[in-house]
Amino acid sequence: MPSKDSEPARSENPQELTELVTQWQQNLQGRYRSSWTWLTRASASCIFVSAEKTSQLVKHFEKVREKNETAGEVWALMNLAYNTELLGPLVSSVTLAAFATESFLRLATCVCLYDKHNGKHTLIDRHLDALQSATFEERLSFVEELIGKNMLPQRARNAVKRLQNYRNNCAHDEPRFYGEVGDIKQYDRRTRTTKSLLLLDPPSIRLLGEKNRALTLRNALWAATTHDRLVRHVLKFAWPQLHKYHLCSESTVSHYIMESVPKLLTSEKLNAIADAWNEVDSYLENVTRSEQRDAIARLHRLTFKALPKD
């Protein structure tokens, strides 16, 4: 066990203490720090990579069609390329946008509470403690009340809720059991019972286990726009409080995911890339089950041929 003498001594140099106090006053005092702006940049970075990879795969698709005779082979090779090159950036784009949305909402909650109650930490802590078990929807309503009941438009509100539900379903995945036609069962951890899921029209954003190539660049752009709409709405009413307590510049680049995407990727270019991939995806969706099975069987045969013989 080390002796007390072996522990590093705290600096008692008056100059160092003065510099520390000065640094604190200049950079930290009266400020809030959170991961929010870094999450927006991270999501924007992933969108940049997603757009680049999507564009590459669109070009790759044309080459694959030229070199392979059957639609099944094209389907198999494009799925492999998608899972290897594009799936990771797309999942990261969407989930990081969801994390950024929640991080911003928590930051707005703390800042507005601190400003409203003038630093009365016991009262602030009581509110924050009550919000620990709150749903995202309840937290959003609480922030809206703090900024004066300025309600987020219903369409944008529904989009935020879908984004958060998607993130939650990915992070806390509950397997779905497919029984007879249209009969889908899933355990509901809130009610602690198994519920039936209706076979309705496909949602705007598909869970990873529901289909091949579940996410697209269009989904990533939707997630970023959903975050940006919420932030823009709250800042419209709470900018003075947020700016007073949050260490950020006057520039809004770090506030919005889409404004953090490199300028060379204009909205027109992003939409064009997304549209081009949708055409590729539509082709792949029309490949029949029989063609898919034949392609997989052929790949298996090629694999066995490549194995070394005794």
Q: What this model shows, in words?
A:
This protein is mainly α and 310 residues long. It has one domain (33-170, 210-306). It has 10 helices and 3 strands; from the N terminus they run H-H-H-H-H-H-E-E-E-H-H-H-H. It has helices spanning 14-27, 36-67, 71-116, 121-131, 136-146, 154-171, 217-245, 257-260, 267-285, 289-306, and strands at 176-178, 184-188, 193-197. The protein has a 3-stranded antiparallel β-sheet, with no helix packed on it. Strand 1 and strand 2 (184-188) form a beta hairpin. The longest helix is centred in the N-terminal third of the chain and has 46 residues, at 71-116. It is globular.
Radius of gyration: 25 Å
Mean pLDDT: 82
N- to C-terminal distance: 59 Å
Count of DSSP helices?
10
The H/E string reads HHHHHHEEEHHHH
Shape: globular
Secondary-structure topology with pairs:
Elements: H1 14-27, H2 36-67, H3 71-116, H4 121-131, H5 136-146, H6 154-171, E1 176-178, E2 184-188, E3 193-197, H7 217-245, H8 257-260, H9 267-285, H10 289-306
Antiparallel strand pairs: 1-2, 2-3
Please sum up the structure shown:
This protein is mainly alpha-helical. It has helices spanning 14-27, 36-67, 71-116, 121-131, 136-146, 154-171, 217-245, 257-260, 267-285, 289-306; strands at residues 176-178, 184-188, 193-197.
Task: Give the key terms.
310 residues; mainly alpha; 10 helices; 65% helix; 4% strand
